[in-house]
Design brief:
The structure is a homodimer of 245-residue chains. Chain A is mainly alpha-helical. The first copy, chain A, folds into two domains: 12-56, Arc Repressor Mutant, subunit A (Orthogonal Bundle), CATH 1.10.10; 63-213, Tetracycline Repressor, domain 2. In chain A, 68% of the residues lie in helices and 0% in strands. Chain A contains ten helices and no strands. The structure holds a DNA duplex (30 and 30 nucleotides).
Chain lengths: 245, 245
DNA sequence: TCGAAAAGTGACCAGTCAGTCACATTTATT
DNA sequence: AATAAATGTGACTGACTGGTCACTTTTCGA
């Protein structure tokens, strides 16, 4: 049984969170290497030495606390989105769309955490420190394992093609992240608030793209005509995710 | 008319290239921020101050020379892969597969350049220096513009769904890069030379995934059954790209 | 051969910054 | 109220590194 928190414990946790938030903003703004403890401390309204009271690992401790947070929440989102209850009441296409939308919204709400991950993950995965690389591998594997469960169920039910579920989960996650990165980049460079990113449209585009593919149905045959032939045109139109940008 | 190079010019160029190669290895190994001019100079077998003879921009000049190289070659690869001649003689699916395979092979051959891009691009795109961010945006746009031409042609011919060609080009490039990153990560972490990455399998997987999507053909209907229904199973099997890993 | 130009060198320097810790302040306990 | 424990501080320090430049070496042209 977990003992109730004392006021002191709650205050300590609150101060730790304030420092962590300040760190996340600085990491997201500047990148980890360029972010300075002086700035983080100032932003959190503490002295620089105090940061070590709350994060034994110092700067790096703050970074990995941030990654933990993002990965934990991403895993929870997968479990919630593909719960047995939901999967039993909605089509996989619907559940997939909802998950994609939730995921994009999740990233938008946690833009800073997401940007930290985007900026630092590859640096570390391909870096010299094997402990860090392994950390990302492990956390990534957990996400992919979680997503591969509903993917496998959809394959067993005949909805999805029979492919390696892990590979499919990997492609799904990668595409969601990719489109979110693109959206943030567009937002950064154009700075048009009136044309903000529409996660619904993006989720719709992704669902169609990932489930149905790019090829037109009339052309999914082994004996395909060349582009120079006068093939019949299918004018099926998919609304573009970039319409709202 | 370009004057023939003198021996001195050729030697100067050769030395510049040696320095650039050494820089690329260090950037790929360590990341740009952690790579040191001292190490680059030693690797190229020059004194540190000599580097500025060949790269006025110093460390950063080497980095951007590397990016230019990678982007130039990537653009050339798109133009070659989707030339009018090739497009007139092969199906789009075949051309697409060939391009995907060429691209993967290209990245494997230029692993260091690719890793530099992977490590640094997002840091810079989301960084404070607008000039750098703009550089990547411009180069990325050029790649996407180049690829959107054949994509648009395939749409006009009815092979691909009608979507925003730029968005589609973006997804194609993103997925190729994503799968290559994954392959390098797997290779880094497992270090099994006997199970090296098979670009052919990956290209095949990507072609199927991107053109045909994940959904089984029997399920591409508006009135989809739920997963709990006893839907007929289509046992179509797609060989996984991860089989060779 | 000599002087000028080109090329090369690495010690030096200024600037940077994460982590440390002696000291100070605040809070809790007796 | 006095003492102990908890919390906070920022000057200091050691390590680091890109860029500079006085000096050296090599190459080239007359």
């Amino acid at each position: 049984m977990h003992a109730p928190q004392t006021r002191r414990e709650r205050e300590r946790l609150s101060r730790r969170n304030a420092i962590l938030e300040a760190a996340q903003k600085e990491f997201a703004d500047k990148g980890y290497a360029q972010a300075k403890l002086e700035d983080i401390a100032k932003r959190a309204e503490f002295g620089k030495g105090t940061l070590y009271n709350y994060f034994k690992g110092g700067k790096q401790g703050m970074l990995f606390a941030s990654f933990d947070q993002l990965f934990d929440d991403s895993e929870a989102l997968i479990h919630e989105s593909f719960s047995n209850d939901i999967m039993g009441h909605k089509s996989f296409r619907e559940v997939f769309y909802d998950y994609t939308l939730s995921c994009l919204t999740f990233y938008i709400d946690r833009k800073e955490l997401f940007l930290i991950l985007v900026k630092e993950a590859h640096l570390m995965c391909f870096g010299d420190d094997q402990k860090h690389a392994q950390y990302f591998r492990d956390r990534r594997d957990r996400l992919i394992d979680a997503l591969s469960v509903p993917v496998r169920r959809a394959m067993d039910a005949g909805f999805l093609r029979t492919m390696d579920p892990l590979a499919v989960a990997h492609m799904i996650l990668g595409n969601i992240e990719g489109i979110q990165i693109h959206a943030f980049l567009e937002g950064e460079l154009q700075q048009k608030e009136s044309e903000s990113f529409a996660p619904e449209k993006a989720a719709h585009f992704l669902t169609t793209f990932l489930l149905d593919g790019l090829a037109n149905k009339n052309h999914n045959h082994p004996n395909e005509v060349h582009l120079s032939d006068n093939a019949p045109h299918d004018s099926s139109h998919v609304q573009s995710y970039s319409d709202g940008i």
